[in-house]
Amino acid sequence: MTGGALLVAGTTSDAGKSVVTAGICRWLARRGVKVAPFKAQNMSLNSFVTRDGAEIGRAQAMQAAAARVEPTALMNPVLLKPGGDRTSQVVLLGKPVGELSARGYHAGRQERLLGTVTDCLAELRRTHDAVICEGAGSPAEINLRHSDIVNMGLARAARLPVVVVGDIDRGGVFASLFGTTALLSAEDQALVAGYLVNRFRGDVTLLEPGLEMLRGLTGRPVLGVLPYRHGLGIDEEDGLRVSLRGAVRESAVAPPHGRDVLRVAVVPVPLMSNFTDVDALAAEPGVVVRFCDRPEELADADLAVVPGTRGTVKALRWLRERGLADALVRRAAEGRPVLGICGGFQMLGERIEDEVESRAGTVDGLGLLPVRVRFSPEKTLARPSGEALGEPVEGYEIHHGVAEVAGGDEPFLDGCRTGSVWGTHWHGSLESDGFRRAFLRRVAADAGRAFVPAPDTSFAALREEQLDRLGDLIEEHADTGALLRLIEDGAPEGLPFVPPGAP
């Protein structure tokens, strides 16, 4: 196999494209295939920094981990980061290049990026045996087809075979798969080679007559029925994995190692980014992580976390309007733990000067940390490492705010601690096992909880197990022979046209 490729499209957002792409990558990697993930254009507030300082979507970083390769900007050449007011920051090849409205992007800029996107894909295909591409939303968004560079526009430009994923758990999967195909032009349909049904619960034999009828209607086979599995979501792009006031899906069900559980309340600020930071806390036995938007829920928690955001000043205003700012100030006065990460760290400081993100000028922070923040036009993208709380720690930074730390009881990564309030710009630091355990011991002591971190929890090992389960899902429930043929040979000739086609 040399330079083969496949595009995984979906009938809707969250149909399972990211999971299926990661699963195919892990399945191929276990076969000894040098494989890479690719997503031409990603809209997400969950991003990651590569070793060479490029910003890409976290889903592509996790898919690279599934493929057992180092993530690079080639794997996600265009990243859109929503910032409110119908605009997004455009990150091109890992670096921010400006802000654009949705209308301005789709009116011409997107089409001009097609050459960049296909060049990146061609380079990955040159250096890898296979590239598994992920689409975005649905390929049947007929209002946007003229400017599409991530679904059928990419497939046509690079002659990629396409597999469409439908989520049966939502209902209407047959109509979704048929309708998606029937709304594509004849030229686009010629590349749609089959379907995958995702998140199926029950007896698959009851589904088989429908699968055969779908094949009769479209001339295309269903290449697998993937069963519903809990806890298989990888780092997501543009939405919480849970509703507010719901527990994080991956929260460990194991009993606490000590006598007490530790309750963590994460504040779901507007334009929340990299909320995946708390996944490592949820992986700890006895740590219960919930997203909470009420002051009384913060008062009841052992640790309150204020995560990152693409709108620090807007989020600060939201905290005050909801009474959450007062709840955080009360926690600090009572010596109860608070952790601010990136934008959350900035909000805990004394003052914010912002002529870049919100252009609000000088705004008072919550005054819980001796920190003043000035927003710079240049974005900090870094992969720092060091030692904190007596343990080695690594992280990554993605922010425009430059923090001036003027004191505190002790340094904390690039930030500080004052009393029971901690703040840092570093994302991902809690994935360092020894550091996470040391931090949780400090939190438990301040909260008066007899909580003891388990001595053997490895977040990296848990991630690997999760990625292996995705590979198992493909290997055990998909027609892997058919997938290999598509990757190596492309879409078969003579696939029938399903009317009416694109309007």
TrEMBL record:
The positions making up the signal sequence are: none
Q: Which UniProt keywords apply?
A: Cobalamin biosynthesis, Glutamine amidotransferase
* Domain annotation CobB/CobQ-like glutamine amidotransferase: ranges: 263-433
Q: Where, by residue number, is the active site?
A: C342, H427
Residue stretches making up the CobQ/CobB/MinD/ParA nucleotide binding domain? 7-239
Task: Identify the pathway.
Answer: Cofactor biosynthesis; adenosylcobalamin biosynthesis
Which InterPro entries does the entry mention? Class_I_gatase-like (IPR029062), CobQ/CobB/MinD/ParA_Nub-bd_dom (IPR002586), CobQ_GATase1 (IPR033949), CobQ_N (IPR047045), CobQ_synth (IPR004459), GATase_3 (IPR011698), P-loop_NTPase (IPR027417)
> What family is it from?
Belongs to the CobB/CobQ family. CobQ subfamily.
Spell out the HAMAP family in the cross-references.
CobQ
Function of the molecule = Catalyzes amidations at positions B, D, E, and G on adenosylcobyrinic A,C-diamide. NH(2) groups are provided by glutamine, and one molecule of ATP is hydrogenolyzed for each amidation.
Under the heading NCBIfam families, the entry gives:
cobQ (TIGR00313), PRK00784.1 (NF001989)
Protein name as annotated: Cobyric acid synthase
Organism listed in the record: Streptomyces glaucosporus
